[in-house]
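Support reply, case 0932

Customer input (verbatim):
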Amino acid sequence: MLVIALGIVWWLTRPPALPSIPRQYLATVQSAAKSCPKLSVPLLAAQLDAESHWNPQADSGQAQGIAQFDASTWAEWGRSSSGSGKADVWNPADAIPAQGAYMCHLFREVKGIPGDPTQLALAAYNAGPGQVLKARGIPRIPETQNYVNRIEGLIPKYTQTYAQQTGASPGPPGN
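Our regenerated output:
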């Protein structure tokens, strides 16, 4: 009986499993992160987790795909990276590089605004760069504030699991 009780206590108090990059997307996320010095694999991974939980068929009704692009942003940033010749928001091989390119653009857009550049770029991805520029920081939009906080909380977890996945040293968060 004691063994069962101890097993139940362990089960209820064990730390939650850390998230990891699904193997089928690892190379694509790595390539997208290399496209811009401000990006990192853990940052893009945490963002994809927050956007769609790695579901390439995610559809919020306003945004689609693994990186959750709305139609107007996809029309501007969507590119065929998969080799199909057609930019497809539902194809992670197109959407993840587009996410990286757009995030790199957003880092440039928010440059000069007081605050953490990563948080500002994430807020711009969620609320739109115009909202961040207007607010001169993270807008007081609960969804956007929660989005930034959620990703900031996921980055160290993805930093740890990315190091495990690649056999590398975790290094400082954000690398």
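We compared this against your earlier run and they match. Two observations from our side: The chain is about 60% helix and 0% strand. The CA atoms of residues 159 and 171 lie 8 Å apart. Please reopen the case if you see a mismatch on your end.
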